[in-house]
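Input.
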Amino acid sequence: MRILYPIVLLLLMAFLAFPGGVHAQTTQTEFGKNRVQFNKDFAEWSQYESRNFVTYWYGEGRLVGQAVVQMAEHDFYEIQGILEHRMNDKIEIIVYTDITDLKQSNIGSEEAFVNTGGQTKIVGNKMFVFFNGNHNDLRRQVREGVASVYLNAMLFGSNLQEIVQNAVMMNLPEWFKDGLIAYVGEEWSTELDNQMRDAFMSGKYADFESMAEAHPKLAGHALWYYIGQHYGHSTVSNLLYLTRINRSIESGFLYVLGNTYFKTTQGWHTFFKKRYEEEAKAFAKPNGKEIPIKNKKNLPISQLKISPDGLRIAYVTNEIGRQRVWVQELATGERKLVFKLGSRNPIQATDYNYPLLAWSPTNSELAIMYERRDIVKLLRYNILTKEKTTDDMSTQFQRVYSMDYGSPNDLVLSAAVRGQSDLFLYFLLNRQAQRLTTDIWDDLDASFVQVRSQRGILFSSNRPDSLNLPVVLDSVLPIQRFDIFYLNLDSIGFRTA
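Output.
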């Protein structure tokens, strides 16, 4: 039943089909209804319809919706070429401005966004994506969603008879499909390579099967990447085709790659082992000593900031939604819980963006930014007096991605306003914000720096140049690679760092 469920939904769900071309119109949907809802943006949805997609957006998400439909059409035929499959039905994309809105809404027949390690949520031929400030990641979500819809149709058929027959005859392991979807979404990346290195060099996994059991998506993604690198990208579609025809992974590997599945995974192990052992020879172990942190459950640490005087660290632990902020004295190892929010939720996707942390230059104040009931809040904790003050941030901020103190009285922010991630100065005394960039490029990871007497901001961006010019979303998509830029606050001019 687990295999049949999304496919049955694919056959039962109705979809909109209008003539080609991209246009927008208003529509009434049920995507925004749920038991708990914190804003009214879901009341009215609009849509863009193009040759292969119907894209829905709401409220102030027009720019995100426009980027999604452009990226979807931009990558559509490439994905078709990889999978060598065709569909007559248009794919529906429901776009959310952030993960909080996604978790508030009713998405088809399921009320919860299931946490599948970042994989795009699919219900039938509907896919659900959200903006996290990075258009490259948004593109990855779209590509994964298209690949998932196509794979369901390709592997399990398009009518009920084919669905039942293929579901009975095929029992694909989790790594096969999840890894392939991730591979189509993004061939490989530095972040994935870091995850793979940590897992591979940990010594916990002797072969592919053991890693695939613990990390099916990562191991599967790495195997498809290895196959594409060593046997050519065209072998991916051939391998899929023969796996489907023969209803056997072993037969597909043998006929297409000329190697058994076992020998192929042995080659995968040798490839990554050699790769990471060669890298290790070039790396020098950093000086200094490890800071012991109490973390018996090995929870993810989503933020870690050291105080300017180097005496304390503040960090965030997140246990599938149960957020805790700790301050630890480096000299004694003593730590104190200064903030807590949320509860464990194994069903909905975990939001690792919040809380954000920043130390004041005075060393006496820790700023903690978090979100409650879809409202961004700023808590300022005085280390000496233990006093806490909390203020609501401006409602213009859909989401804040990073913050840092510029002075004791102002913050440097990277935040989303109307679907664009830009830089802001936020003044604590009057709670007003000054916008520093206004363009389609993503501006993230803002950090204040002072070079001699000049104040500036270091940040990561996928902008193609160092000109601070207003740019609107048109035929150019903000999907270039990220570089580090410097914004001089005294002259409000850019130069690459």
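The longest strand covers residues 399-407.
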